[in-house]
Amino acid sequence: MRVRSVTPDGLVDELVERIAAIADPDGFTRVALDGAPAAGPDRLAEALVEPLRALGHEVLHVRTEDFLRPKSVRWEFGRTNADSYYEGWLDDSGLRREVLDPLGPGGSGRVLPTLRDPVRDRATRAAYLTLPPGAVLLVSGDLLLGAGLPFELTAHLVMSAGALARHTPPELDWALPAYARYADEVAPQTFADLVVKVDDARHPAIMSVD
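Predicted structure:
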């Protein structure tokens, strides 16, 4: 395994370059930024928006936390059940139906940017948006890969178990077993298009087998 250190700005530049290289001017480009909250997938997605727009792409950033199932489903076995978190908090069918499929080949481009407010536990009543050809979708969040969701590019932000435990707030450490299962059972680091080690966010490193 080869590890190549980059700066945070260099990581953004490399991702923008990779996205631009595969962007379809007549269609849409769906990008997954996958990682535990401590790894900063939302923050990385936000950093990509303006550079991609500067290249002429309309950009929509969607967070998985806005596509969670109702609390009655998520908390069926308790509010801090790691197995439930791993197996069924994300409404992946809703994410696919409202966002990913409309941006697939031949899709309408009409998407719903948010589905459910996870705190108030009710529909956000967001308005549908119609993205133009050439637009880029950035989906950020955790446990995104391995469920067959369609993306043109996937980036996985990985942390060692020790770093993940250190950087996860105490009120969220109940979810650590879910991330351990994800690393072991899904092993996204073995198939993501880009794997970035972020034990220290100030010093990311791109990992590759070549």
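Summary: The two ends are 7 Å apart (CA to CA).
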